[in-house]
């Protein structure tokens, strides 16, 4: 059985069938291996124009992650799959441990690449200027180690780092991607995440006594042995005030996580500690600050990728508020992810 046939069969077992755009992407991915056999990397593809990987991009819900994950499961080689934010945190942590060395970047990259033939990046996107130059260096180092890369993104390479000033500084990295990756556009019309009915049992508005009582009931249903009282938790070496903290669920304020100076590192740490985040008090005034909006989008990315639950209370309907927020990038992706998180949330309340 060919690699493509095995791939289609594995998806069909889950009730998933590829559309035309996804079939084209599969054809490109299948060139990386022959039948999923170890050592079956096809060098001819990558010797031509020095291609080293595949970059899948398109609107949210077009099947990019499904394709990459299915490919990752079938390929029999030394491999690693990681969300891009998580990868950046890993690299920064490795370098911090080597702070006394002038060769810390080189050593950290070599350590990360040890024993890896294939690296799959989910959600390759860049909005932070502080990371933009670093990402270029890391990507170049990964390619120099001979690692094959499959990446998913909502952006075509030329659309990465959309801020005009920052984009200019990121152009060398864009050129690197265009040179070494086969660029595949998943341009299907259907957002597969929005095919199912949305369960709004985890989204509450407005911010009134009724919503507050709903939050209290929901937390007690998830954490019956825990008292609802103000307490603090440590996240990424900093303290966060919370309304309540249980073994699996934590309840804190929107401003505490998104208005305060936070990064995706904080959110990754939080997602590793708890299964459900209850976030109360998202207001239109908070969303007037583009940095607050950016942090909220980072938070949703991390929770979604880590398959964590979200319960949110807001001043008005969250979709209306986000559509009216300042400086929103990737709004369609965030709304699509919130829809999916709502659909999969299992409320403990009857």
UniProtKB/TrEMBL annotation:
Pfam families registered for this protein in UniProt: AFG1_ATPase
InterPro entries, per database record: ATPase_AFG1-like (IPR005654), P-loop_NTPase (IPR027417)
Top-rank lineage group of the source organism: Bacteria
SUPFAM superfamilies assigned to the protein according to its UniProt record, in alphabetical order: P-loop containing nucleoside triphosphate hydrolases
Gene Ontology CC terms: cell division site; cytoplasm
Alphabetically ordered keywords of this record: ATP-binding, Nucleotide-binding
Entry keyword annotation includes Nucleotide-binding: yes
Record GO biological process: cell division
GO molecular function, one term: ATP binding
NCBIfam families registered for this protein in UniProt: ZapE
Name of the featured protein: Cell division protein ZapE
């Amino acid at each position: 059985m060919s690699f493509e046939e095995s791939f289609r069969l594995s998806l069909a077992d889950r009730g998933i069938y590829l559309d035309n755009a996804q079939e084209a992407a599969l054809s490109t991915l299948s060139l990386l291996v022959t039948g999923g056999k170890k050592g079956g990397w096809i060098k001819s593809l990558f010797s031509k124009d020095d291609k080293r990987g595949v970059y899948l991009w398109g609107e949210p819900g077009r099947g990019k992650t499904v394709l990459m994950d299915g490919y990752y499961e079938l390929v029999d080689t030394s491999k690693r799959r990681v969300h891009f934010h998580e990868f950046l945190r890993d690299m920064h942590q490795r370098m911090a441990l080597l702070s006394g060395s002038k060769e810390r970047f080189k050593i950290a990259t070599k350590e990360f690449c040890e024993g890896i033939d294939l690296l799959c990046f989910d959600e390759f996107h860049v909005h932070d200027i502080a990371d933009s130059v670093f990402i270029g260096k890391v990507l170049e180092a990964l390619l120099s180690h001979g690692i094959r890369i499959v990446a998913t993104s909502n952006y075509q390479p030329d659309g990465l780092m959309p801020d005009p000033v920052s984009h200019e500084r990121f152009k060398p990295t864009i050129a690197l991607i265009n040179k070494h990756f086969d660029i595949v556009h998943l341009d299907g019309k259907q957002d597969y995440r929005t095919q199912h009915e949305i369960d709004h049992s985890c989204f509450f508005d407005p911010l009134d006594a009724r919503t507050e009582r709903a939050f209290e009931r929901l937390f007690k249903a998830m954490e019956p042995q825990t008292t609802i009282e103000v307490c603090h938790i440590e996240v990424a070496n900093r303290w966060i005030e919370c309304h309540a903290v249980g073994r699996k669920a934590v309840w804190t304020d929107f401003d505490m996580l998104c208005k305060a100076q936070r990064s995706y590192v904080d959110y990754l740490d939080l997602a590793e500690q708890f299964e459900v985040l209850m976030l109360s008090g998202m207001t239109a005034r908070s969303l007037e600050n583009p940095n607050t909006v950016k942090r909220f989008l980072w938070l949703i990315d991390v929770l979604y990728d880590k398959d964590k639950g979200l319960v949110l209370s807001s001043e008005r309907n969250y979709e209306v508020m986000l559509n009216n927020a300042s400086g929103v990038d990737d709004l369609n992706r965030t709304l699509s992810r919130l829809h999916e998180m709502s659909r999969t949330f299992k409320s403990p309340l009857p």
